[in-house]
Amino acid sequence: MTHIVCLLAGDGIGPEVTSAARCVIEASDVDIEWVNLPIGKTALEFCGSVLPERTIAAIAGHGVALKGPVTTPIGRGHPSVNVQLRRRLNLFAAVRPVRSLPGVKTRFDKVDLVIIRENTEGLYSGLENEVVPGVIQSLKIATTVACTRIARFAFEYAVSHKRKKVTVFHKANIMKKSDGLFLQCADKARAPYADAVEYEELIIDNGCMQLVSDPSRFDVLLLENLYGDIVSDLAAGLVGGLGLVPGANFGEMCAVFEPVHGSAPAIARQGIANPLACIMSGVMMLDHLGETKAATRVRTACDAVLKEGNPEHLTPDIGGKGSTQGLVDAIIRAMA
Ligand code: ATP
């Protein structure tokens, strides 16, 4: 069967890592017709918009996309393209599996957790204004609909992926109403799953301390938008860095697969970006498409190359001396 997949290269290291992922996925013998679509800085140059309507329409129509990172201006400029894309397509759940990888030496070797991040509201609603000069307010939105939807998603995910525990990080001691609602919804949503999945609530500061002391005690983490963003990068640090953590965004109608990392402009066009996060996002996509054999083939090959640990095949962020292309070639050879 031929799958139609939208391919959004993005900017910064985006074109390098998406093209690497495409090469590896194609080598897994899966039949994919790629539809290249503009997004971000390049889209602005050629289409006059960072998020062209035809890009949104194509993803909505085909239902699946593999996306590279897109640069977000800091403290000025257009609203985040990622936030807009997630909102327009109602991609309400981000799923980010964080696991220790063979051969990648870090402080911990038994990390195997999944971050589930609410993607549509919280402090990402973009509602900021200047009350009087020198006083800014930023609104944090929490709705029963979105909090319940993400909580149900987390419990469903836990059951279907044979996970044992869901932990919510929150700050309901300070944000009693918004984080309070998040907790109430999670508590209500867990009822049908109570026999299968353990449930735990931790204040986020304590949660982070426990995460960096003993990450193996965590299984599925359920987080509102901002906490999910921050804890994802923190968790990436536990397993070797942002170059290694894949992600997916799910809505009712479509799914967009993308690495957790940003566009890393400082290393763009040098051929040294780690493509593994994007390749592993592609593996999540293959699983989603029902191509489990191909997914396992790619995942096993990535693990084999990491385990072998030949510095010539690894990118500098994980201690290697190699290049993006060198790592891609090694993975493709390991698949043969
Ligand atoms: P954003 O706000 O868009 O998420 P960010 O501020 O989190 O971006 P990143 O672009 O993710 O920043 O980069 C953070 C650091 O991680 C940088 O030092 C970058 O070089 C490194 N990094 C991120 N992704 C990769 C990768 N694929 N390969 C190598 N290094 C990476």
What does this structure look like?
With about 325 residues, the chain is an alpha/beta fold. About 40% of the residues lie in helices and about 20% in strands. The chain has a 10-stranded mixed β-sheet with strand order 2-1-3-12-11-4-5-10-8-9, sandwiched between helices. A two-stranded antiparallel sheet has the order 6-7. It is globular. Adenosine-5'-triphosphate (ATP) binds near residues 261, 274 and 317.
Biggest sheet overview: 10 strands, mixed
Biggest β-sheet: strands ordered side by side in the sheet: 2-1-3-12-11-4-5-10-8-9
Helix percent band: 40-55%
> How much of the sequence is in beta strands?
15-25%
N-to-C SSE series?
EHEHHEHEEEEHEHEHEHEEHHH
Poorly predicted runs are: none
Query: Rg to the nearest angstrom?
Result: 20 Å
| CA-CA gap between termini | 22 Å
Helix and strand composition category: alpha/beta
Question: What is the 3D shape?
Answer: globular
Mean pLDDT rating: 96
- DSSP strand count: 12
Tally of separate helices? 11
| Associated small molecules | adenosine-5'-triphosphate
Write the layout of secondary structure elements.
Layout: E1 3-8, H1 14-27, E2 32-37, H2 41-47, H3 53-62, E3 64-67, H4 81-88, E4 93-99, E5 112-118, E6 128-132, E7 135-138, H5 144-160, E8 165-170, H6 178-189, E9 198-203, H7 204-213, E10 220-223, H8 225-239, E11 248-250, E12 255-257, H9 276-288, H10 292-308, H11 324-335
Parallel strand pairs: 1-2, 1-3, 3-12, 5-10, 8-9, 8-10
Antiparallel strand pairs: 4-5, 4-11, 6-7, 11-12
Helix pairs in contact: 1-9, 1-11, 5-6, 7-8, 9-10, 10-11
The structure holds adenosine-5'-triphosphate (ATP).
